[in-house]
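FAQ: What does the model actually see?

It sees only this:
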Amino acid sequence: MTTKVGFIGLGAMGLPLAKNLQRKGFSVHAYDICEARADEIVALGGTRASCVADASKGAQIVITCLPATPHVEAVVLGADGVLANIDDGALLLEMSTIDAGGTDRVAAACQAKGIGFVDSPIGRLVLHAERGESLFMVGATDADFARVEPLLRAMGKDINRCGGRGMGSRMKLVNNFLLLTIAQVSAEAVALGTKLGLDIDTILQVTGGTTAQNGQLHTLMVNKVLKGDVTPGFTIDLAFKDMTLAMTAAAELRMGLPVGAAAHAVYGGARATDYATRDYSALLEYACANAAIATPRT
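And it is asked to produce this:
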């Protein structure tokens, strides 16, 4: 029997995940506030939902992949939201990057209604999602994990059990704090090397052969900004949101994150400009502009 999936949120990451599900034999009923985004699901044999309620009704598993905590809480907990319309015995697979408190509130609401809940934020880049190579950070009970595992394997490659409900969301916070801080330092390193007169190919070759090698410079930037492509896979605005989640969590725990705080401030400055809607690899363009040099290209 084909599993019926209601998929809500067809953004840069959500759309390729939903397409992979449909390709792998699941029946996807997809919804996004931008109706045209569901066209690609329909072209693959899926169907278009008219609203959140429509996507939720009749689905065995409802997936949400949304920008931020307020969007998730409105979509899941609202009067016309997922929990008001989901079938008894169904499960919510929440894949957004949101604060841990928001995840906990949604999980508690699902539990109160007798609905299964799994939080499984996504790792890696849009290009990996398109190839079915995403990584997932999963918070779930054993029983709920068993229900979503076939979907996760259809959408991606690597599945990491992080603990019970809410632990996937917490792991994603830590993961993005680390990668976004590294991205900013990598941008500054390339800007410095360029200012010193080094060729970008030399910078990439040498740093790629030492322990300075990292995915932000050698995978993200090589495939995006260094090719002159800053169309958003993951915007600087969203990157600032994720850094803010980490800084807020640290503040609540009375922790200092001094290097992270400096990177957070850079993202804050960039999002106050036209860079806000560009891919976060455009941090390199931002760093080069501040250094009064042209952005290198490969």
